[in-house]
Amino acid sequence: MSNDGNAQPAGAGQHKLLELQYISKFFGNVTALEDITTSVEAGKVTCVLGDNGAGKSTFIKILSGVHKPSTGQYLIDGEPVELASPRDARDRGIATVFQDLAMAPLLSVWRNFFMGSEPRKKFGPISWMDSEFAKKTAKEEMKKMGIDVRDIDQPVGTMSGGERQSVAIARAVYFGARVLILDEPTAALGVRQSGVVLKYIRAAAERGLGVIFITHNPSHAYPVGDRFLLLNRGKSLGDFAKSEIEITELTRLMSGGAELEALQHELSRGR
Amino acid sequence: MLGRDSLGPGPATFNGKTKCSVKRTWGWGLMSETVLETKPVNAPSEDGKDAKPVVIHADERIAFRGPIQRVLVSPEIGAIIGAVLVWAFFWGNGAKFGTPGTTLIMLDSAAPLGIMAVVVALLMIGGEFDLSAGMMTGATGIMVGLMVKYFHGSGGPMWLAVGAAFILAGAIGFFNGTLVNRTGLPSFIVTLATFFILKGVVLVLAKRLEHKVQVSDVKDKSGFKGFASFFAREFKPERFTGRDVAFTLLGMGAVALGAAGLCEQSFIRRAAGSARAGASRVIIGIAGVVVAVLAFVMLQRTDSVGANVLWGVVGAIGVILAIVGLAMARYVASERPAASRPGLVAHRDLRAFTAAGVGAVAIACLAPLVLDRDERLPILTWFPTWLRPTIAAVAALTGVAIAFRQLWPRLRERFAWYRPIQAVAFVAIAGLLLMVALLSVLQLMTVQALRAVVMMTMSGVGLGLLMVARGRAAKVDRRAQSEIGALAVISIVVLAFVIRGDSDVSRFRSGLFTAMLTIATLLFANTVLEAMLRKRREADVKADRLGRRLLVAAFVCTGAAILVRVVFTNIDGQSEGGAGSNIARMSIVWWLLATVIGAFVLTKTKWGNWIFAVGGNKEAARAIGVPANRVKVALFVTVSLVGCFVGVMVLARFGSVQASQGDGLEFFYIIAAVVGGNLLTGGYGSVVGASVGALILTMSDSGIAAAGWNQDGKFAVKGVVLIVAVLVNNVVRKKAQEAR
């Protein structure tokens, strides 16, 4: 049953893996998020766009179980849930890849891949790590993401930023994630590397996962996204399907939309 | 997916700031950790169907690394090479160094340091230090001693005392670890406090109860005998007449296995179909083996010089034929280049390297002619009168010139009024410094010592340069590679004969001579293979695994050979290290055991992975489900318990213990770990390296003693060893990270 997400990508898109309904979050008298509604389907990518201070981090923390929403409903597989902790979220198949990637740079790829969940072999009372299995699996899983790591023993620190992202994504996928939350995976990357990561995002979605891709860059979001949630100062500017919105409109909304126009107007008048 | 509780959670990423995983980590016991069992959720078999392995890019920029390069990036390699060099250095300089008897004594005295270095290395890889580790060995020893003598008025049984010491040590370790975790203070400070507390308490207790800072006369207390035999039993060597034959056979086995392993990892195997074509080569190879074995048997039988030379040459030819023939039969030959390539002459930098290497070897060969072996005068006194001031002047002028060259561009750039004064002062001081340094070195070093140093370093540097040149040539020009390889072989042979002709010590005349000629033979075979076979450029899992296993077998053979030589004595073995001194002690076994267990835990278990992870990036490790705090506490407790073990071991060995035992040794543990390639910042390192590091430190002590040099120089030597090790580690680590 744990494989249903992966096994039938044909049925993807029908089933809402994760849904948020009218989520709000207050910290004291500060409203961090207000009435946010969106959903993720298997095999689809939902992009969450917002500038700095738009509430993206609060949003991720609610999704990954760090914070509980003040009001509103969090549904997994159509059933309302209350996540107790990030571990709880993880147990339900919601994996978050944070920006710092949770990797030890001097450790080899396969050791990082299985960090904290080492496969084991046993002989009598002695158990040890099954490193052959770990190496083989890490290599295979990376290959499924489309990367041929020639030397699985190479330290993760020697990989490029995009490849490191892909290790983190492949790891999350392998350990049973059905929903993958990516926190600004392209923020620190160059143009080509960003492209590589976007490919991995698409690859992950094609393997039947629901992906939530958080970014502030509409030109990264638009090519891979199926659904776009725009945040501005804690409020939703709208939750669009790809067919409902153009990239120009997305960019306009992103960059403050009406506010920007007002600013432009003001600047031109000042001259 | 939702019913996964039986499988355990999928430990994907989650934010590490929450407490859920931390709380759960405080239960003890290995098996209680079902939380972190691995169960891959998407089984590979099912995934094989629907996954689309569309490889986006195979990174063509990553070059394939051959077996040598792969070994060179492991953390302990610097220490191992260093240990061999230090050993060779003292072996060449002290007649008493390196015999089985003195080696065993040295290993026995190194054991406490070695055992502690292993656990301290683990702790360091986990990102922490324990400055109380040294004092722990003394404190627990004192405590056991005091309890045995004074517990309940007239002393308690030894086992009770030892048990209590272990419990106390564990508690202290737990305290250290917990405090570091809870407060987030640097472990440096926390354990420094523990160190002082321990030291104070031990001194007070020892002085109050024993009225001195030493606890002695423990030997006749109840239960001591059992502990003494457990911790420090003596093994007298057995007499075994076949020792030398067994040693040689095992050594040859190791060489053969090692050669096979390296070939397997370096070259491309022939396809099964083309095996027929290699029949004649197989015959050559087998003939070579037969000839080599025959020559070996004859070498053992005969004893005249003429026969030795004859069978030695025959044996070398046999070995070369065997290796080349068998390798040619098994691996794919390289295609011959159409036109003859230019070779060494065409490459300027290679030429320079080679010339420097040959020059250094030549200097090493000429040194015995110029410098007198039995001259014990300081070099400066030995020089003719007119040369002394000349050397001083030249040194001063060189210093001035160097300083001036450094300064000149800056002077020209910005001329301020104070600059000339500064410059003159700087230049003068530099000149003076160089002069003083050179003169004092010349005054301190005897002609004899200079001779030894020049011969060793120059031959080492020369051969090293040649090997580097050969490695570089391999990338550009095969012919140049062969030529440099031939030059290296010739250099080794010439050096071997120079050493044989120069020395009248039997271990140089026969031992070193034979070893060098063997190396020359193998290098020759290797050069031929490199020229004839195509090198493998990509990974081949099967061949790599087989090669690795062969290399491991070669290591085991080497170990067995050394063991045979140490454990047994042949008929005239008594004369080797003084009468009947080949005594091995249990402590060496404990050291070996500690190293093996430590290495196993670090590289082969999940705990090892966690140690690396916690040291490399604690937050990340915790976020991904590693019980970081528990790992750290476990490490601290381990260090303390092993410190207690060593304390009891020392007590059992000598029957008395000083309160100052172990005081200050914690730095040597850390030094040993650093010399062994462990990073001070954690997350990278090796247990075997730390063990070897301890060996290097001990070797430098006993080597100085054996050479009859000033004992106080050992601190200087340790300092040099440390700084060199750190520099080498730095380079190795950078290489490891960039070269891939």
In short:
The complex is a heterodimer of chains A (271) and B (740). Chain A has 271 residues and is of the alpha/beta class. Chain A has helices at 4-7, 56-63, 86-91, 109-113, 131-144, 161-174, 191-206, 218-224, 247-254, 258-270, and strands at 16-27, 30-41, 45-50, 71-76, 79-80, 94-97, 120-123, 126-129, 147-148, 179-183, 210-215, 227-232, 235-241.
Mean pLDDT of chain A: 79
Number of DSSP E strands of chain A: 13
Structural class of chain A, by secondary structure, is alpha/beta
Q: CATH H-level name of chain A... which superfamily?
A: P-loop containing nucleotide triphosphate hydrolases
User: How many helices of chain A?
Assistant: 10
Report Rg of chain A.
20 Å
Indicate the low-confidence ranges of chain B by residue numbers: 1-61, 573-579
> Strand order within the widest sheet of chain B?
2-7
SS field, number of helical segments of chain B: 27
In whole angstroms, how far apart are the ends of chain B? Answer: 38 Å
Report on the architecture of this protein:
The complex is a heterodimer of chains A (271) and B (740). With 271 residues, chain A is of the alpha/beta class. Chain A has one domain (4-105, 176-270): P-loop containing nucleotide triphosphate hydrolases (Rossmann fold, 3-Layer(aba) Sandwich), CATH 3.40.50.300. Chain A has helices at 4-7, 56-63, 86-91, 109-113, 131-144, 161-174, 191-206, 218-224, 247-254, 258-270; strands at 16-27, 30-41, 45-50, 71-76, 79-80, 94-97, 120-123, 126-129, 147-148, 179-183, 210-215, 227-232, 235-241. In chain A, the strands form three sheets. In chain A, strands 6-10-11-3-12-13 form a six-stranded mixed sheet, with helices on both faces. Chain A has a four-stranded antiparallel sheet with strand order 2-1-4-5, covered by helices on one side. In chain A, strand 7 and strand 8 form a beta hairpin. The longest helix of chain A is centred in the last third of the chain and has 16 residues, at 191-206. Chain A is globular. Chain A starts with a helix and ends with a helix. With 740 residues, chain B is an all-alpha fold. Among the domains of chain B are: 67-236 and 583-729, ABC transporter involved in vitamin B12 uptake, BtuC (Orthogonal Bundle); 377-444, no CATH class. Helices cover 70% and strands 2% of the residues of chain B. Chain B has helices at residues 20-24, 44-50, 67-72, 77-93, 100-125, 133-150, 158-183, 187-210, 224-232, 243-266, 279-301, 305-330, 348-370, 379-382, 387-413, 419-444, 447-476, 478-502, 506-532, 541-567, 586-604, 606-616, 618-623, 628-654, 665-675, 687-707, 713-738, and strands at 57-58, 214-215, 234-235, 238-239, 568-569, 584-585, 657-658. In chain B, the strands form three sheets. Chain B has a two-stranded antiparallel ribbon with strand order 2-7. In chain B, strands 3-6 form a two-stranded antiparallel sheet. The longest helix of chain B has 30 residues, at 447-476. Chain B is globular and about 85 Å long. Chains A and B meet through helix 1, helix 3, strand 6, strand 8 and helix 5 of A and helix 2, strand 1, helix 22, helix 23 and helix 27 of B. Strand 9 of chain A pairs parallel with strand 1 (57-58) of chain B.
